[in-house]
């Protein structure tokens, strides 16, 4: 009989996470397979230790260099686009040829989110059944739901067309409780309903406080929800959530002087959410984008910049961090690199920044016909370039300007070019000095999503080979 991917020793998993993250419990160790729920969920500190383990797994070394943590999901999206050129790990992603049922990208992008969803469910279910106070329950469950919603969002983006293409299409299974039985595929509508439900519950249950910037608070939950609303085109919701995520005061949440500091410090005022690294808990050479885009410290030296993308930046733009490191000519794929990211074993990784939320708000305002969208866009532009001049663009030209600004602001951080092309049902043609020029993405291209892993088909009684028909 088949066994679902979730069929493993739940207590062992929880115990290992718990003990690895709360060193005080090592003073009186118990057999790892027998740590009782009462130990973990008998106090807020115990539940927070489990939560710390979940956060640590965001940045873990899951299987290999291009299949590590959340950063691997994001960086694979970056190199699938036109703005960057890849020549090391992630090469199959760069070629947009890494989607078959037995391929690393397909397996990792399925198993890693479900691994974290399972941990979030462990937290949610355990807290619900505990004797913790109502206040503690509300906050801890809200954090668990935010994380669960975040990872279901990754699955929805990676394993089907975008929501507006056809919301009735099959999507990954939904688990809200620990389960030893594989569930059938859901639909895009169902999985997005679950995502929105989780995130709105999280926003309602969380406040501003948190244990650190790697943890979720109301600000982070709103930021995730803003991204989701972009995809399903709930523009009033996207505007409100994005504004709540950054606070609404542009001048107080941007610091252009830090843009060239290496994007390796989670304490930066512009970072809403990130994954911190320390030398004693480092991901070493797994760290993306830092280990790939930095050509001056010891890394892979594997990522280069499309010259047409670099030409979008004015000379005075603080984000213009491109360098002709190797002396190649304009048509050489190694012509340009970027110094945006500094690679060290303790380089922190950004997950969400204020500028992204400002630009989501600007896009949402535009989509609702609000003329202040242009003013908000220019607030960001003039922060990044003191000599910026407000454009005269209107209509579709203004919308394209907003989308270009997203690429300029967020490059190599979270795959923004791919994310926008997929949700807006656009293609990504390869241009200029690309190393591979036959890997274009057409609008609604099937290469925007992955096939269901063979391992899941083999293990789940409710999913068979036909799930990949036409994919």
Mean pLDDT: 92
Q: Can you tell me the CATH architecture of the domain at 42-232 and 412-468?
A: Alpha Horseshoe
What structural class do helix, strand and pairing data support?
Answer: mainly alpha
Give the overall silhouette. Answer: globular
Total E-strand runs: 8
- Report, as a whole number of angstroms, the end-to-end distance: 26 Å
CATH topology of the domain at 42-232 and 412-468: Serine Threonine Protein Phosphatase 5, Tetratricopeptide repeat
- Return Rg in Å: 22 Å
Strand order of the largest sheet: 1-5
Oligomeric state of the chains in view: single chain
Unreliable parts? 3-35
Major β-sheet profile:
2 strands, antiparallel
User: How much of the polypeptide forms β-strand, as a percent range?
Assistant: 5-15%
- Indicate the percent of residues in helices: 40-55%
CATH class of the domain at 42-232 and 412-468: Mainly Alpha
Number of helices in the DSSP assignment = 18
Q: What are the secondary-structure elements, in order, as H or E? A: HHHHEHHHEEHHHHEHEHEEEHHHHH
